[in-house]
Amino acid sequence: MTDDTIIISPGPRFRTAMVLAILADALQVVVFPLFVAGAASPPDDILDFAVGAVMVHLLGWHWEFLPSFLGKLVPGVDLVPFWTMAVANVYRKSKQIAVATEENRGQDPALKGQ
Q1: What is the pTM assigned to this prediction?
Q2: Shortest CA distance to 15 belongs to which of 85, 69, 87, 81?
Q3: Which mean pLDDT values do the consecutive 10-residue runs of the chain (114 residues) have?
Q4: Which of 90, 88, 72, 74 is nearest to 27 (CA)?
């Protein structure tokens, strides 16, 4: 008997992206409000552009990154850890795609030779 269990572990790109997202969100939620005035702060915007670029480099383009970036521009909403949620959602979707691909591969092929 074969074990058909699918194990999907986060690779180094996902781990790096998650650590970066957590650090960026922590900076924006905890550190920046102490020293910089609100959502119009240039360091906050620069951090968002940099994190967005690195996320696209590490994980490729995903629609989840767009609301993460735009949400940071709205005062008050910028306190939500959007980058962390976006990376977690990209990982969740990649697991779903991998499972669906594995299930399709496991189906009986169409009759061959006819």
Answers
A1: 0.71
A2: 87
A3: 50 90 88 61 81 90 83 73 90 81 64 49
A4: 72
